[in-house]
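Table S2 (text version). Query chain:
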Amino acid sequence: MKSQVINWLKFDREFESGVHLFMKFGTSLSLKARLNRQGKTQYNMDLLMEELRKLAGIDPAEFKSIISIPVHVYGKRKAEQTKAIDPVISESAKVEQAQVIDPLQTDQEQSVPDTGKIEEEPKKKVPANKSGKTSKSSKKA
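Corresponding structure-token output:
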């Protein structure tokens, strides 16, 4: 558990994943309810970090030194250590990140890069009547 909390503090610090850790290891039902009910606030984040620190048995001085370094710095250090230890790992990571072509897709589908954005159709303008309000089409009797 201590290693999971330290990894969260060093490499993640996302509220939802911290709550997941607390739900797994924490004992305070009232804090669990509070975190689920109120969601992410600065107070709840501070409270969550402190409670996880206590659960893992991390010394306050060690905790301060861990959180004083931004998450992205730990990520860079870990990447540098990985390269220094085994350069093959970084090559295999590149292979895993390569785009895999699905043989069931048509050529046209494969050539279009997926940006993750959904394009919206342009909105049609509704003509306004003399009073400036949009008119609804209605039949006169």
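Notes on Table S2: Residues 42-56 form the longest helix (15 residues). The two ends are 76 Å apart (CA to CA).
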